[in-house]
Amino acid sequence: MNPARPIVEARAIHKHFGALHVLRGVDFAVEERQLVFVIGPSGSGKSTLLRCLNRLEEPSSGSIIVDGIDMLDTRTDINKARQRIGMVFQSFNLYPHMTALGNVSLAYDRARECQPRTAQSAGAGSGGSRSPRPTRPR
To answer: How many angstroms separate the Cα of 36 from the Cα of each of 30, 31, 32?
Structure first.
Protein backbone atom coordinates (compact mmCIF):
# COMPACT_ATOMS: atom_id res chain seq x y z
CA MET A 1 0.00 0.00 0.00
CA ASN A 2 1.38 3.42 -0.98
CA PRO A 3 1.39 6.13 1.66
CA ALA A 4 -0.69 9.23 0.88
CA ARG A 5 1.04 12.18 -0.73
CA PRO A 6 1.95 14.76 1.94
CA ILE A 7 -0.24 17.86 1.98
CA VAL A 8 2.83 19.92 2.95
CA GLU A 9 6.40 18.91 2.18
CA ALA A 10 9.48 21.00 2.90
CA ARG A 11 12.97 19.86 1.94
CA ALA A 12 16.34 21.41 2.80
CA ILE A 13 14.85 24.79 3.74
CA HIS A 14 17.50 27.39 4.50
CA LYS A 15 16.90 31.02 5.37
CA HIS A 16 19.52 33.70 5.90
CA PHE A 17 19.02 37.22 7.17
CA GLY A 18 22.35 38.69 6.14
CA ALA A 19 25.03 36.69 7.98
CA LEU A 20 22.46 35.14 10.34
CA HIS A 21 21.58 31.59 9.23
CA VAL A 22 18.10 31.11 10.79
CA LEU A 23 16.87 27.90 9.11
CA ARG A 24 19.47 25.22 8.47
CA GLY A 25 18.23 22.48 6.17
CA VAL A 26 14.75 21.94 7.62
CA ASP A 27 12.98 18.83 6.30
CA PHE A 28 9.46 17.65 7.11
CA ALA A 29 6.27 16.29 5.60
CA VAL A 30 2.72 16.62 6.89
CA GLU A 31 -0.03 14.20 5.91
CA GLU A 32 -3.59 15.41 5.42
CA ARG A 33 -5.40 15.76 8.77
CA GLN A 34 -2.13 15.24 10.69
CA LEU A 35 -1.47 17.68 13.52
CA VAL A 36 2.06 19.05 13.77
CA PHE A 37 3.36 21.35 16.48
CA VAL A 38 6.41 23.55 15.93
CA ILE A 39 7.96 24.29 19.28
CA GLY A 40 11.21 25.86 20.39
CA PRO A 41 12.69 28.81 22.23
CA SER A 42 12.16 32.39 21.17
CA GLY A 43 14.27 33.25 18.15
CA SER A 44 14.76 29.66 16.98
CA GLY A 45 13.03 30.20 13.60
CA LYS A 46 9.50 28.85 14.20
CA SER A 47 7.70 31.87 12.74
CA THR A 48 10.26 32.21 9.96
CA LEU A 49 9.63 28.61 8.92
CA LEU A 50 5.86 29.12 8.84
CA ARG A 51 6.25 32.37 6.91
CA CYS A 52 8.46 30.58 4.38
CA LEU A 53 5.77 27.93 3.78
CA ASN A 54 3.42 30.47 2.20
CA ARG A 55 6.18 32.75 0.90
CA LEU A 56 5.64 35.65 3.24
CA GLU A 57 9.40 35.13 3.57
CA GLU A 58 11.47 33.85 0.66
CA PRO A 59 13.62 30.88 1.69
CA SER A 60 17.27 31.20 0.70
CA SER A 61 17.10 27.65 -0.70
CA GLY A 62 15.11 24.44 -0.56
CA SER A 63 11.74 23.25 -1.84
CA ILE A 64 8.20 23.65 -0.54
CA ILE A 65 5.24 21.74 -1.96
CA VAL A 66 1.75 22.51 -0.60
CA ASP A 67 -1.08 20.28 -1.88
CA GLY A 68 0.92 19.49 -5.02
CA ILE A 69 1.82 23.15 -5.71
CA ASP A 70 5.48 24.10 -5.88
CA MET A 71 5.39 27.25 -3.78
CA LEU A 72 8.86 28.35 -4.92
CA ASP A 73 8.26 27.94 -8.66
CA THR A 74 8.29 31.39 -10.26
CA ARG A 75 5.29 30.33 -12.41
CA THR A 76 3.13 29.65 -9.33
CA ASP A 77 0.33 32.17 -8.83
CA ILE A 78 1.14 32.74 -5.16
CA ASN A 79 -2.06 34.68 -4.48
CA LYS A 80 -4.17 31.82 -5.82
CA ALA A 81 -2.13 29.27 -3.87
CA ARG A 82 -2.54 31.26 -0.65
CA GLN A 83 -6.35 31.12 -0.95
CA ARG A 84 -6.16 27.57 0.44
CA ILE A 85 -3.58 28.28 3.15
CA GLY A 86 -4.54 29.71 6.53
CA MET A 87 -2.25 31.43 8.97
CA VAL A 88 -2.82 33.06 12.33
CA PHE A 89 -0.20 35.71 12.91
CA GLN A 90 1.83 35.96 16.08
CA SER A 91 0.43 39.15 17.51
CA PHE A 92 -2.17 40.52 19.86
CA ASN A 93 -4.73 41.08 17.10
CA LEU A 94 -7.10 38.33 18.23
CA TYR A 95 -10.66 39.06 19.29
CA PRO A 96 -10.91 38.35 23.02
CA HIS A 97 -14.67 37.76 22.84
CA MET A 98 -14.17 34.88 20.36
CA THR A 99 -12.84 31.37 20.85
CA ALA A 100 -9.70 30.09 19.14
CA LEU A 101 -11.85 28.50 16.40
CA GLY A 102 -13.76 31.73 15.94
CA ASN A 103 -10.53 33.72 15.51
CA VAL A 104 -9.01 31.17 13.13
CA SER A 105 -12.14 30.75 11.00
CA LEU A 106 -12.96 34.46 10.77
CA ALA A 107 -10.78 35.06 7.71
CA TYR A 108 -12.06 31.88 6.04
CA ASP A 109 -15.65 32.93 6.62
CA ARG A 110 -15.06 36.46 5.36
CA ALA A 111 -12.97 35.45 2.35
CA ARG A 112 -15.47 32.84 1.20
CA GLU A 113 -18.53 34.87 2.25
CA CYS A 114 -19.95 31.76 3.81
CA GLN A 115 -21.78 30.84 6.96
CA PRO A 116 -19.74 30.81 10.23
CA ARG A 117 -19.97 27.03 10.65
CA THR A 118 -18.49 26.31 7.19
CA ALA A 119 -14.88 26.57 8.39
CA GLN A 120 -15.53 23.98 11.08
CA SER A 121 -17.24 21.58 8.67
CA ALA A 122 -14.36 22.05 6.22
CA GLY A 123 -11.97 20.74 8.85
CA ALA A 124 -10.67 23.97 10.37
CA GLY A 125 -11.05 22.44 13.79
CA SER A 126 -13.48 21.47 16.43
CA GLY A 127 -14.84 23.30 19.35
CA GLY A 128 -16.90 26.30 18.66
CA SER A 129 -17.62 29.59 20.22
CA ARG A 130 -18.85 30.77 23.52
CA SER A 131 -22.59 31.19 23.46
CA PRO A 132 -23.88 33.27 21.78
CA ARG A 133 -21.61 33.53 18.75
CA PRO A 134 -20.43 37.15 18.37
CA THR A 135 -21.65 39.23 15.48
CA ARG A 136 -18.87 40.04 13.06
CA PRO A 137 -18.50 43.59 11.76
CA ARG A 138 -18.84 43.91 7.99
So the answer is: 7, 9, 11
- 68 & 104 share domain: no
Q: What is the identity of the amino acid at 45?
A: G
For residue 59, give its domain range. Answer: 8-82
pLDDT means per 10 residues, the chain with 138 residues, are: 81 97 96 90 92 94 96 94 78 78 78 57 48 44
Count Cβ neighbours within 10 Å for each residue of 113-135 and write b for 16 or more, e otherwise: eeebeebbeeeeeeeebeeeeee
* CA–CA separation, 126 and 133 (whole Å): 15
